[in-house]
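Hey,
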Amino acid sequence: MTFTRRTLLAAASAAAILAQPFAASAADLPRNIRMVIGSTSTGGDTYQAAAIVADALSDKLGVNIKVDAVGAVNGLKALERDKRGTTIMLFHDFAYLAELYGGKGFVNPFDAFTVGATIANNPGNAYLVGANSPYQTMEDILTAAENGERVRVAIQPGGVSEIGFSAMKNAAKVRAPGSEENIVAVNTGSQSDKNQAMWDGLADVINGSIQANEQFTQLDGDDQKAMRFVWITASPETLAEAPEAGMGALTRDAMLDYASPKTSVTLDGTQDFTFDKEFFLIYNKDMDPAMIDTIDQALAEIYEEGEIQKKETAAFFTPNFRPSAEAREHLMEKRETYKKVISDISG
């Protein structure tokens, strides 16, 4: 693993926690804990990230933590009802993006709940075009919009899928005000729906992921389903910690070619927009802070031991432990950045 400034800061924070005595013992935690996730799928990345951390915490704390894929709104409702600590949540940036996009049933999680530690990133969020697309790069796409061409982007509205689309529109506006109107959303649903929109000729660009779409980039260019990556939103620091072999035929070096700074989608004319999909814990606002401290302490020890990093990396996650206080500050800063992007393109 490459050691970056973020890695070293996280290690320093973990070391500081390890130097402190437990605020509460594992015996103070409920014996059975339900970890709800903001997805209804047991085959997606959210369930996978939750299962890894739930198993590690169960072993470390001697409690039974079961992952329950109930979906975002239901998960937050369940969390809101339980201040005893028998329900906790693992989710990702959708938790605050959905509220910024005005999603029904969503609130600012930093006000309504206690946001806890980050545990991993998924560096795979990406945008793709068809293999025979005239657009070879993001520069081509933004130039096309500037020249008055309508570029259709298939997304699932209201969260992680949409934030990169918002960034495209924002970059177009920064480069050539008015051209953002030529980057238009094709609102779909799941990844298969977005793929189909491209294959049916309804979208020029789709939101996807390395994990879900890399297989289509290996197809012969004449295949109707063949795709090409044009942008990976993850920060170069996150991608630098991915396995060198990458995934499938896409090596880490190739991933970096599609990410900042080699592929630039400007944020404000001076720096690039990046988006790391981060997984983090969320607790009921009135849950005993000592319980949260106990979980932070356990996570610090787990990440100090190092086995969880191997499991996360093997599953194509980038390990990213930050204790609760540091995680809240970091995620709130992200929220403010993306809030401005969304506000700017919304007028």
